[in-house]
Each structure stands twice: as structure tokens, then as C-alpha cells.
């Protein structure tokens, strides 16, 4: 008997590439992540207003924007943590919100400010993350040991995560995001509170991950870091994309920081804080 071909209503997101996936046709060159018309409101506040973004597979993509621009909200919707009000999220061509469980296996996520199971030790937390992703115990044990060493957490492997410093917590959360060797890593402020040596080690790990075919998206407020580390960048403000492309395209001959200030504006002088001048006391 011929297999029943899927009806249009079976096909996630009505995306032509998703349609090919349903028919078993491999999606060559699908972007690692594609956001189409994403919207999200919190009460009356529109946090994200129609974001479109294409992250090429194999890129090291920076997401920058002022405080409250909508970066975390966008990344939460892009990784299955927060349901969009409207819009589509495609991960390697597959509609995330049509089948979150299937698609999440391709993702490694370091969310901003999400609580961890911090009554586990670092080693236990990484092991738990690996087992949840369906790895066998032996593989998880080897990878947990490797990750603890690479992130300089070996000496603290048996300490409870609740007793970790902010930087150590960030590193163990990163280890949890990496343990199943995802195809796409989405990291919200991965370097916040991390010491310079660990940050350099993390940059090396991420660069080698990208060289081996993985895709990384990082949000950061440190323009210099994004300019040195990433090959693409998107500038987001007030819930939409102001500029996106390769670093050179976006900065257009100036530094990324200057370009960012030009695009976003908002520089204020300190004149209004005359009372802060200690010499007048
Ligand atoms: N759970 C929430 N409830 C209400 N408003 C929210 C919520 N989450 C975000 N917002 C609002 O949505 C907007 C975007 O917030 P978001 O955290 O996405 O910005 P961001 O670019 O990540 O900021 P930052 O760089 O400061 O981390 C802000 O105005 C914020 O106050």
C-alpha cells in the first residue's frame, strides 16, 4: 500500500523547507535559525515587534542591543522557552513551535536568569542534562569529566551548585548546554560574571565548535568582544532589528561600538547630576 502523503494541515508551519522535511527530503543549506515575524507582548508592553532574522548555519552570530531591547525575549522564543504571540521559528528548517520536543534536541541553550536545579552538584547537574537529552550513562560520564576540566570546574565538581559563584554557575550552565553536542548553541550573555581566563577558554571552545560545523548565537553588551569573536551581528532595539549581516557589513568602516551608538542613540550627558561632584561637598 502506498504511504499516505501528508495533507497540508499535517505540515508544520507551512514552510516549503519544512514541507520537504515531512517528505523525507534533506534540507540542504537551511539556515541554523530563521525567525519570521516574531511578536511578543507582556501586558501592554510590546517586547518584540515583528522580528525577522536569518542565522546562517556555521556562523558565529552576535545579538546586541540596549537594555530592554528584547534580546532575551527573542532568544527565549527562539529556543522554545517562551511561546510567541505571532511568528515562526525554524531551526535547521524545522518549525520549533510545531514540534518543540523534536527540535529542542538540536539546541543547546544557556538562558539568562533561569533557575537551575542547584541542590545538585556540578557533576550531577551536567549528568542530569545529558541523560535528559537521551545520552547513555557512559557517554555522559566521559563528557561531564571533559566539560568540567575544560571549564575549570574540576575542583568544584562535587560541590552543590547553590554554593557556586555567579561565574561558576554560568560555566556549569554552559556545560549543560554543550553536553549533547547540539547543532545550534544559543547563549544569553555567556560571559557575564566569568573571569578573563575562563572567558578565553570558553571563546576557544566556541570557536572550535563553529569550525567543526556548529552554529553559535550569543547575546552580549560587549561590542569589542562581539566584533572580535563573531562573524555576523544583529543590532536590536525596541523589539525590532535595526541592522543585521556580517560584522563588516553592519559596522561599515567604523567600530561596532560607534555604529551601535549611531543606530541606537540614547547617549546622555552627566550634566544633570551636578550634585554628584564630590568637590562641591
Ligand atoms: N516577564 C516579563 N513581564 C513583563 N515585561 C517583561 C517581561 N520580560 C521582559 N519584559 C519587558 O520586555 C522588554 C524586553 O525585555 P528583554 O529582557 O527581552 O530585553 P533585553 O534586550 O534582554 O534586555 P537586557 O539587555 O537588559 O537584558 C523590556 O521592556 C522588559 O521590561
From TrEMBL:
PANTHER family: ABC TRANSPORTER ATP-BINDING PROTEIN, DOXORUBICIN RESISTANCE ATP-BINDING PROTEIN DRRA. This is ABC transporter ATP-binding protein. The keyword Transit peptide does not apply. Its main location: membrane. InterPro entries: AAA+_ATPase, ABC_transporter-like_ATP-bd, ABC_transporter_ATP-binding, P-loop_NTPase. It comes from Cellulomonas fengjieae. The keyword Transport applies. Keywords: Antibiotic resistance, ATP-binding, Nucleotide-binding, Transport. GO terms for molecular function: ATP binding. Coiled coil: none annotated. It is a peripheral membrane protein. Residues 33-263 form the ABC transporter domain. It is found in: Cell membrane. It comes from the Bacteria. Pfam families: ABC_tran.
